[in-house]
UniProtKB/TrEMBL annotation, chains A, B:
Keyword Iron in annotation: no
Enzyme class per UniProt: lyase
Sections of the chain in a coiled coil: none
Domain Tryptophan synthase beta chain-like PALP: 76-384
Listed name of the protein: Threonine synthase
E.C. number(s) listed in UniProt: 4.2.3.1
Pfam families: PALP
Keyword RNA-binding on entry: no
Length: 418, 418
């Protein structure tokens, strides 16, 4: 495992120590990245050791197969990572990274698995998070596994599954009549109030928000390592990524940089496509307008609940990566997203989350225009299990619970019960 | 991969050919098991090749890591198998096999993945299944991936997720005002009617019911291989298994027999515990009464929807295995199941399905009585993701959708939104 050398600000490159828990850069409030001694890592971290280590372990190591490039602490694990890379049945170059196989059914397990691991390492006892839904569920699960108290704030109209998992895992759940931005404000206000009231340090919440602490990115970077390893240590031509907070995209870019420094991969980095829903598309709008950062997206509304992030904290980093890579930030309507869910379910056997279906909608659109060829090697992230969005997808399809239909009525088909 | 020698009846040991699709034993209607030439397999199938093969493959092979003991055909795969084996945070001997990480969120993916693989191999074009819910969802997904039409029959009151996935994957869905036993009758009646109407052979449905064709057991047996490999090629002291149709338990027992013949494992086989819900406990009742088979369980009712199987086709085989192994068949009430869901969520970070929680309820009960020690090595199956049962678990908890609560009301906790 890797010893952390320091935490570096993504914006002003100021370094701080990782000996104690850190949030944002103390100088400029930029996001902090975990930095290792890469000269030392080049000696100790070998890519051929990864598969050998996994083979020597009777159980799946999950994302901890990359322990040589992760902090040297005892993991809090629920089996996250090393998810299937499914080859499309229709497009020879398309690979779907099925993040729905993670604990709590989404890619959020990677970031929060690592962030909670570090929180336990630091001895933190209260973690708080504003969330569009899935980060809250993942925090609740990992906090329960670690014996830490979770305080989660979600919009009132998240998928029902997000609410239920929060309650079941024993988190302190607050449903907010607003968006993730309102939730973030409330977390900040609560922490401020606790400090002003001289609450004992051990009882003050630690804010584990997207990009406001260094370790969620560090967990998410394993998606970058994984996709490269799963393609035989080669880059694809493009990565299609549903982008709400964008931590995964930022984490993958960090992984690519590290892997190049370690000599694990060479060649041209993939074009990074950040995909959003038209009902909340701050990054796509800024990309279209050639701006370096996004503006707060008014009246955010889409059934791709995880993309209802009106102003991502890492917007400037995301836009920079997308542009540097030669990719694009695009948005698709809820109708296009739903059509893509049904298309991939019926023809690939994969039930996408609405977020994942922004990426397939984008893929199909770019294939149709000829911007992309079916043979171009593309890794497309389904960030969550479609099953976690049963209520919202059914609502978008105008599907009713069959219990409300007359008895013995045929549903969706041809056959009449005898 | 292994060449199938023949299919053998579990009851009368009659052999039939696997050259064409088979259902039940033509002599006695017993279930058919896949048999290989074990002398040949002893030469070709080596356990040390498994991890090496997995390590040499850039992507996860899932259950096909055991291809040397599976039929020699091209897999229809969605990434099933090689699920996490989670070490309990509280009991040193307890390992939870997290089958919720499978495609479609349950262990059914293994059996139907293999059965659909064989169906495609045979050129079958219509597959029908009666299901308590999850087998229907898995068939729908794998049939979609294979380009085969699925006809699924489920009780009207299955978890909503089962209904939605059937529709989304494009299956022909019939919701039945009854139980899986009614669904089974309807599938049989439809096939009979098709035959009587001289429907072209390619359009007659093939009945892919539990234990009425040989390959669902064959897929499920990978759970047995996996648990032994994940314990370092050793048997645990006991296996705790939620039992509806019981295919997984039967499949694991077959795996143990094969592994012993191959010299992959030695020693005493685990005690097999078959766990049911008190509201539908035909196997536990027959076990208690010392009977060789179960009776139809009247008025089956439990929120562990997958256990609503009033008369499993393989009941005699299940009871025989449980007794041979020195295990037990036990049943727990819905209240005990719900309490165990909440306990394991809050203290282990694992959101169990109601079926899985019959196994944890049993584990805790046997620990409490001293029948089991916390150091006894136990592998306990969570057969499905708790997230797939959001509606039923919430109903059991009397949880309402937060959208129906007043605005800005604190939910489940302490914090009042500002």
């Amino acid at each position: 495992m890797a010893v952390i050398a320091s935490l570096e600000c993504a914006r002003c490159h100021h370094h701080v120590s990782a000996e104690t828990p850190q949030t944002l850069c103390p100088l400029c409030a930029g996001s902090l990245y975990v930095r290792y001694d890469m000269d030392k890592l080049r000696q100790t971290a070998k890519r051929e050791d990864i598969a050998a280590r996994a083979a020597a372990s009777p159980t799946s190591l999950g994302m901890w197969r990359y322990c040589s490039v992760l902090p040297d602490v005892t993991p809090v694990t629920l089996g996250e990572g090393w998810t299937p890379m499914l080859h499309s049945k229709r497009y020879p170059g398309l690979y779907i990274k099925e993040e729905g196989a993670n604990p709590t059914g989404t890619f959020k397990a990677r970031g929060l698995g690592l962030a909670v691991t570090m929180a336990r390492h630091y001895g933190l006892q209260h973690l708080a998070v504003p969330s569009a839904g899935n980060a809250a569920g993942a925090l609740a699960a990992y906090a329960a596994a670690a014996g830490i108290k979770a305080h989660i704030f979600m919009p009132q109209d998240v998928p029902f599954a997000n609410y239920v998992e929060g309650i079941v895992y024993g988190a302190n759940v607050t449903m907010v009549d607003g968006l993730i931005s309102d939730c973030a404000r409330m977390v900040a206000e609560n922490i401020k109030a606790q400090r002003e009231a001289n609450t004992p340090t051990s009882e003050v919440w630690f804010d584990i928000s997207t990009l406001k602490e260094p370790f969620r990115v560090e967990g998410k970077k394993t998606m970058g390592y994984e996709l490269v390893e799963q393609l035989g240590w080669q880059y694809p031509d493009a990565v299609f990524y549903p982008t709400g907070g964008g931590v995964g995209l930022i984490g993958m870019w960090k992984a690519f940089e590290e892997m190049e420094q370690l000599g694990w991969v060479t060649g041209k980095r993939p074009k990074m496509y950040a995909l959003q829903a038209s009902g909340c598309a701050p990054v796509a709008k800024a990309f279209e307008e050639g701006k370096p950062a996004s503006e707060f997206f008014q009246n955010a509304a889409t059934f791709a609940a995880g993309l209802r992030v009106p102003k991502p904290y890492g917007d400037a980093i995301i836009l920079d990566i997308v542009r540097q890579s030669g990719g694009k930030a695009l948005a698709f309507s809820d109708e296009e997203i739903l059509a893509s869910i049904l298309d991939y379910a019926k023809h690939e056997g994969i039930f996408l989350s609405p977020e994942g279906a922004t990426a397939t909608a984008a893929y199909d659109a770019l294939i149709a225009t000829g911007d992309l060829k079916p043979t171009d090697k593309v890794v497309l992230f389904n960030t969550g299990a479609g099953l976690k969005y049963t209520d919202m997808t059914a609502e978008a399809m105008h599907l009713k619970r069959p219990g409300t239909l007359p008895k013995s009525m045929p549903v969706g088909g041809i056959i009449t019960p005898q």
